[in-house]
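From the shared-data thread, chain only:
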Amino acid sequence: MDLLRIHHLAVWQWEGSGPPILFTHATGFHGRLWDRIIEQLPGRNCFAIDLRGHGRSDKDLQSYDWRRFGEDTALVARELGFRAALGVGHSLGGHAMALAAAMEPHAFSSLLLIDPVIQSRDRYNNSPANVEFIARRRARWKSVDEMYERFRTRLPFSSWKPEILRDYCEYGLLPDGDEFVLACPPEIEASIYRLSNHPDADISKELLIIQQPTVVMRSGKLMTKEQFDLSASATDPKLASRMPNAHDEYLEGASHLIPMEYPALIVDKCRSFGVK
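Structure, as tokens:
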């Protein structure tokens, strides 16, 4: 596996054959959270982006508006010369993947949008969520093991597959002197959540031109306007009906963190698109 630099972005590549598969992650995460899914797709040409402000990508950018992530994803697809790729995106990454498919339609043959936080139009009202608890996240750790032991018995991480939690900690920290710091600084993560309801994040017009066969996979745990819950789904329950060639798959028992809880389900869904 190689680490590529595409402008301000870090992109992980697993070399293989066949049409490429591009993975994009959720807010606060990184591209290596897809490792345990990609290893079940041996021999495929897979790529996973560290979105701006995350992982090994640049963090000194001025804008973390939601559209910037879609533009970055389209940039990667364009720079790598994608044709007929499968795009797999979770949460913020699903929102970004949908916008990228609208911007670069020939780059993608199909899409798997996993609880992509594309909300109903009435939610884009410029009222930022109260996410001060995210801005106050602990950013500094003595070791990967310390972070892992702290999280493994706490929700929502205790519902994750242990090996995925280990990857989250391993690649979610960067060395800083004798300690480690979060690869997505809490202030950046909080700023992304604050902008999630901004009118500029509404990609309703772009949804209308996405012709690729699309699966919208949604959590059964729905977010309410009264409570900001990171494990709940803010995705419009009617999202698939707003796209020309999409269908909805509703997972009643799953939280918003579907790839971490049910990685085998994501592998099976990728294979349903013809991925061997």
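The chain has a mean pLDDT of 95.
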